[in-house]
Amino acid sequence: MATIEAVKRCFSCGAMLQCEDPNAEGYINPEIFNNFGPESLLLCEHCYSEARYNQTPRASSVSEDMLAMVRDAKAKDGLIVYVVDLFSFEASFPPELVELLTGMRMIVLANKLDLLPEKIDKETLREYVAHRFRVAKLSVTHNDVYLVHLDAQADVAEIAEEVQSRRQGKDVFLIGSSRAGKTAFRDAFLRCFSNISHHPIVTSNYGETDLPVMHIPLDDHSTLYDSPGIELNNDVRGVVAPSLRRKIVPNKAVKARKIIMTKGMVVAIEGIAAFYLKEGKRTPIYLYCKEELHVSTFSYKHLDDNFFGKIKGKKLKVYDPNHIDSNDFDAFELTVTENGERDIGIEGLGWFSFEAGSQVFALLVPKCVSIYTSRAKIGKKHGK
Fold first, then answer.
1. Domains of the chain, with CATH numbers?
2. Do the beta carbons of residue 108 and residue 140 sit within 8 Å?
3. Model confidence pTM above 0.85
4. How many angstroms separate the CA atoms of 284 and 201, rounded?
5. Is the confidence at residue 49, as pLDDT, over 60?
């Protein structure tokens, strides 16, 4: 009796994989083809060489004008006030910016505390933020971190006093990603600001650059510079269609959704992203994303029907028309080697927490979106 076997295809271009003709479409090294099981995400030699499968998540980038301003800040021994989005900042450390910030004095404003569960341990969270900066090789302690909820009524008088104290008569440079809340801090700062100098507040290009910056005089010899936000070009919010941002970004505290994952099980967040347990024992996870986003589970064997198929068929409430099939998604495989509670996150969309136990997870995200792994941000004890 004849047997029928599924044809393996390149995960990126969809060509049928073959090991016979290196010059033909879909060629793959026989050792790779034969040593990986049917659930593996394989790529033909062409797609692999084109780097269409991201071995390393993409880092956000910074304009040369912004870097010129930070170089100047470092030369002046200025104080950096770095605003981050607590819901999602873990993959937003542009290498070229981090290199310049190394060794600089810094205050970190960890904004959007209101988007995290109320029962979190705030001291643990402050140390988490400081730890993420130290992982990026920046000298930040928990005493440098302020947890804030910046809105129209925010009182930042205490932070303003700390800035005045720490700047030691030097300039202050306010930086952060787009939509992190930098403008909200500036506006709150101006409400408690008294101009004791002979200079007005003006907006003009910084130095010889084309970077439009607000100049807020702190005295006759020093200034607070408010620069434009760093673009979110490795974040779901900056990659998907603008009309989807409101559907993805939470506007109230997220709650943990408990899911018991078994090997081969896929968890899909609408048509925006999916992840599955490739190797490992039964693993409870706690998923944190916007409450209105529908989460579905199914077997990896039905990935094409239940994820890409539903996107193409417009059967999901939230999906991006620019990301509808496997060619529009990056795939990452993450092997967990640490112990204790861990997080795996998708920049701008959310994260899930779990107890590490040598698992292997695979993630599918829109092209150019970064993922990250870290120790647990809040942990299952406080995240409910």
1. 1-53 (no CATH), 64-226 (3.40.50.300), 237-382 (no CATH)
2. yes
3. no
4. 53
5. no
